[in-house]
Amino acid sequence: MPVTHTRAASRRARERKIVDATRALFDELGTQDARIDRIARRVGINKALIYRHFASKEELFVLTTTRYLAEINVLLEAVDRETGDAPERLRRGFEAFADYGIKHPAFLDCALSLVRQPARELRAQVSEAVWLRLGGSIGVCIGWLSDVLRDLGVTDPDLRANQLYLQAIGVLHLARSGVGLRATTPGATEAFRVTAEQARASCVQLALTVAATG
Predict the structure, then answer these.
(1) Buried (b) or exposed (e) across 144-176, using 16+ Cβ within 10 A?
(2) What is residue 2's predicted lDDT score, i.e. its pLDDT?
(3) Residue 53 to residue 22: CA distance in whole angstroms
(4) How far is CA 97 from CA 92, 106, 148, 198, in A?
(5) 3-class SS of residue 189
(6) What is the rounded average pLDDT of the residues 67-82?
């Protein structure tokens, strides 16, 4: 095998190991504690080498996010194999999405981090290839939802799909925090417990309500 091919294969293998380590740390510690030095130690390399493979920390985190999205898209494909009925697709799809978000809270953090800054700022921190991979991964997920909403006769399904995707992520964060707030007296609030089952049910009901109201 030519030396150039061997080096390219070695580089790709190391990149996969870095993304694998990042994903593992996300799942174990959350995104806030998945620092570059910890990722490097997990792979067994100097952290400076990570920046030889990735344009920025954000690019590495974006690539890790596409791993989560790819797994979600596999779940949605499974739903489509099980049923072609639009209402049932929506219900099962959001049950799968909710279960995944509850099991992988780091995905919820990743999804929110992508919308905390304008797209042009994020775009400037990642390569063209990574930007396209991210767009493709999100596009498949939201595109699936848009198709279902279109079949259900929802007005402007593309916009509603984007809204519903982000709303569902927000609802699922209740499962992670386990706490909601309610007003008691004017100017005062109190916390109340929110279970994962309640957050899951609310996420699914949110989707069904959007479909019902059109």
Answers:
(1) bbbbbbbbbebeebeebbeebbeebbebbbbbb
(2) 61
(3) 14
(4) 9, 14, 14, 14
(5) strand
(6) 96
- What is the Cα–Cα distance from 125 to 136, expressed in whole angstroms? 17
- Asked if residue 11 has pLDDT above 80, the reply is no
CA pair distance 90, 32, nearest whole angstrom: 32
Token pair 């099991």: residue = 103
Determine the Cα–Cα distance for residues 49 and 174; give it in Å rounded to an integer: 38
Question: What's the start-to-end Cα distance of the chain, in Å?
Answer: 58
Structure tokens at 97: 């999405």
Write down the pTM of the prediction: 0.88
Amino acid at 122: L
CA distance 181 to 194: 10
Residue 33: its pLDDT value, please?
82
Estimate to the nearest angstrom the gap between the alpha carbon of 69 and the chain centroid. Answer: 5
Cross-strand bridge partners of residue 193: 179
Q: How big is the chain by its Cα radius of gyration, in Å?
A: 20
Q: 194 or 12: which carries more pLDDT confidence?
A: 194
Residue 1 has pLDDT above 70, yes or no: no
Close Cβ partners of 174 (under 8 Å, ≥ 6 residues apart): 180, 194, 198, 199, 202
174-179 long-range contacts (CB < 8 A, ≥24 apart) are: 174/198, 174/199, 174/202, 175/101, 175/102, 175/105, 175/199, 175/200, 176/102, 176/105, 176/108
